[in-house]
């Protein structure tokens, strides 16, 4: 594997330009004077405000499942490919069409990169969903664990397969540096995610008898991590998550919403009833996550990847609360007062 310093990005192609992470990453890279050319690719045209932010970046309307992506990479002499089009942040539930997009898209991007002698670096936006969630989970997931514990369905399965395609490319083209970024659940005032939609419900269904531990990653830190992966060229697979852990009940109360404990088999249907029909609907993989939680080991992120998020998990949640427009049903101070009264009553009973 060549030294990363030999592969300083000059011409960068980013897939998923109409998404939050893909589009705003393009905008960041376009503002970097050390990058000569930035090419934004998507089958959908980005919103006008996002397109303006992209500045000098060139937009190509291409379906990455088609051979046209290979022509774009070859004709533009691309040296760095950032595959950010993986469909995991959209609020649409996982489906056969999304699975096809994730898998065929990753296969075509990898095949195009393999055929192009100019490509020297590929970055994949994966997800912490590759770890799944179950009662037998470790306290913290390190990057090696998916080899033993693999999700069998949903977005986690898609991205685990996509990771396999990218690693296969690295084995076939050992002159290409491969970086895989696994962000924890992303939350922020601008990005639209299933977790944000779920926490925004005034009445939030939870699984009775369980208290999942959660980490969040601020949208700005997610962007910064992808930019760092593009520029630094650190080879390997890296968890990316904020410091600190919050339980689901703590998060709901901090927002000022009401918790509705229900049996696990009713979590998805009740959430679907409470949400607008256009909003994210839970599937079994999300139900598992909201039952057992998931916490990542970020040692490698700091030591090998060389990245540190600016926001903690609690700061990410607070920024989401203050700037996303969620309205509290019960003010947080009321929860704290109730907790103090319960503790005081418990002490008196001793």
Report on this structure.
The protein is an alpha/beta fold and 350 residues long. It has a domain at 8-192 and 215-243 and 295-310: NAD(P)-binding Rossmann-like Domain (Rossmann fold). The chain contains 13 helices and 14 strands. The strands form 4 sheets. The chain has a 7-stranded parallel β-sheet, with helices on both faces. A 3-stranded mixed β-sheet has the order 12-9-14. Helix 4 (96-115) packs parallel to helix 5.
Structural category? alpha/beta
CATH superfamily of one domain: NAD(P)-binding Rossmann-like Domain
Provide the spatial order of strands within the biggest beta sheet: 3-2-1-4-5-6-11
The average pLDDT score comes to: 89
Tell me the overall shape.
elongated
How do the strands and helices of this protein lay out in sequence?
Blueprint: E1 11-15, H1 20-30, E2 37-42, H2 48-53, E3 58-61, H3 68-75, E4 80-83, H4 96-115, E5 121-125, H5 154-172, E6 177-183, E7 186-187, H6 194-199, E8 203-207, E9 213-214, E10 217-218, H7 219-232, E11 236-240, E12 246-247, H8 248-255, E13 258-262, H9 264-274, H10 284-292, E14 293-294, H11 299-303, H12 313-323, H13 332-349
Parallel strand pairs: 1-2, 1-4, 2-3, 4-5, 5-6, 6-11, 7-10, 8-13, 9-14
Antiparallel strand pairs: 9-12
Helix pairs in contact: 1-7, 3-4, 4-5
Protein name: NAD-dependent epimerase/dehydratase family protein
Pfam families: Epimerase
Organism: Gordonia desulfuricans
């Amino acid at each position: 594997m060549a030294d990363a310093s030999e592969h300083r990005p000059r011409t960068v192609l980013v897939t998923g330009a109409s998404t939050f992470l893909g589009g705003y990453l393009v905008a960041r890279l376009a503002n970097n004077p050390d990058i000569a050319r930035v090419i934004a690719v998507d089958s959908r045209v980005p919103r006008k405000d996002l397109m303006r932010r992209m500045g000098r970046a060139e937009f190509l309307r291409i379906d990455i499942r088609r051979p046209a992506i290979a022509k774009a990479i070859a004709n533009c002499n691309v040296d760095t490919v950032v595959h950010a089009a993986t469909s995991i942040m959209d609020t649409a539930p996982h489906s056969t069409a999304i699975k096809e997009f994730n898998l065929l898209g990753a296969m075509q991007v990898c095949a195009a990169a393999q055929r192009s002698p100019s490509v020297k670096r590929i970055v994949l936006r994966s997800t912490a969903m590759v770890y799944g969630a179950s009662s037998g989970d470790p306290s913290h997931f390190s990057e090696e664990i998916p080899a033993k514990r693999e999700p069998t369905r949903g977005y986690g399965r898609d991205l685990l397969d996509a990771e396999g395609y990218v690693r296969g490319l690295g084995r076939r083209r050992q002159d290409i540096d491969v970086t895989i970024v696994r962000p924890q659940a992303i939350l922020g005032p601008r990005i639209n995610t299933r977790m944000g939609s779920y926490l925004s419900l005034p009445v939030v269904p939870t699984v009775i008898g369980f208290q999942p531990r959660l980490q969040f990653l601020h949208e700005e830190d997610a962007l910064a991590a992808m930019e760092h992966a593009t520029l630094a060229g650190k080879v390997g697979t890296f968890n990316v998550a904020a410091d600190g852990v919050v339980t689901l009940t703590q998060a709901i109360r901090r927002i000022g919403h009401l918790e509705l404990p229900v049996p696990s088999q009713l979590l998805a249907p009740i959430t679907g009833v409470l949400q607008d029909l256009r909003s994210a609907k839970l599937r079994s993989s999300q139900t598992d996550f909201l039952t057992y939680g998931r916490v990542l080991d970020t040692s490698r992120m700091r030591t090998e990847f060389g990245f540190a998020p600016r926001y903690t998990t609690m700061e990410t949640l607070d920024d989401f609360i203050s700037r996303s427009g969620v309205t509290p049903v019960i003010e947080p101070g009321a929860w704290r007062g109730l907790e103090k009264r319960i503790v005081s009553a418990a002490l008196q009973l001793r």
